[in-house]
Amino acid sequence: MRIGFISTRLNGTDGVSLEVEKWDKVLRRMGHETFYCAGELGGYAAGGTLIPLLHFNHQSILSLGRRAFGPNGDESPEQVIDDIYRIADEIRPPLRDFIRKNKLDLIIVQNALTIPMNLPLGVALTGLIAELGINTIAHHHDFYWERDRYQAARILRLLDTNFPARLPTIRHVVINSIAQKRLLARRGIESVVIPNVFDYSTPPPGIDEYNRDFRQAIGLADEDLFVLQPTRIIRRKGIEMAIELVHRLRNPRAKLVITHSATDEGLDYWRWLQSEAKMMGVDMRLVDHLIRPERTMEEGQKRYSLWDAYVHADLVTYPSIYEGFGNALLEAIYFKKLIVVNRYPVYNADIRPLGFEFIELDGFVSEESVEMTRELLAKPDVVRMMAEKNFEIARQHFSLEVLEEKLRQVLASF
């Protein structure tokens, strides 16, 4: 089968791009041919079809988002909707060409029919799927009703028609059971849960000649406590809890290292975090300038992969307030690290019941969690046993082999 992935961005280390790479690997292993189309391409998708208007950061798309979800002003909703459809008409022809030129049998729309970061793209895809009658998997990561920033929308009818669209040739896939229940209750749409996954059959990498100097590159000594926060700097990641935890450990050698940028949702949250860290005396370092999707050299300087950071970490913090699932949590399990996790809703519903052993927060940093962290850091043998147990549970429930079986079932439904 010839299968095309369509998204706003297929590049970098965001959750959607990472998950597409896993789906792509499994589908090709199953014997299918895969193709890519997005507003930004890189890595595995570098040879795909680039359509700049698909990117959520395109100026035309950003402007429409501000008009649709910002202060009302004097503009009517009808004016905004007219412009959404006008740009959708520009997007539809190159998308149609992508499908026809590659003779696609199936398209997999990655989050573009889910969260309205690109309104015209959702509208264009809905119309095109209906027009062509093409079999479609709509892979949903974040619904608009799950995000506060989209609650004041003046275009709710358009959102409920296109995000997601309800068409006979679309099969809907969600990444957690909470989303499955809400999609059915809100829109009457049935869906299949396919959680985020990881390649647990491949042994994790370790320290090698390339990454041996990673601690030195980020200014850490061998004896420092390397606390890794492997996420973007956005409010729902709850990074203030990681700062408080490090502060309350009372370890002068503890360093909090953040791997991803602060640009996705503005810099206000990052500036506040910097103020909090300074006030609490926490050494917090942003190393996104050194991290790339893959190891590379830039102007004679090493750039490391995210895996190189995990290898060296002593403790991984994942204090998210909300997650669609939790890619970084699966990664930390893969690298067999001691993990601090906040009990966000999907964790409580789909992950915690499986029996993992983490240091848990419940929306705040308790004295119990601080003491447990301090004690476990001094007991590497206990941590090793916990990590091995966590790895085995994740392998059983969140592996590529699990993904393959679930994809077979969805493809057989057409």
From TrEMBL:
GO biological process terms held by the UniProt record: lipopolysaccharide biosynthetic process
UniProt signal peptide: none
Keyword field contains Ribosomal protein: no
A Gene Ontology molecular function term of the record: glycosyltransferase activity
Keywords: Transferase
Annotated InterPro entries: Glyco_trans_1 (IPR001296)
Every Glycosyl transferase family domain range: 213-347
UniProt xrefs under Pfam families: Glycos_transf_1 (PF00534)
Name of the protein this chain belongs to: Glycosyl transferase family 1 domain-containing protein
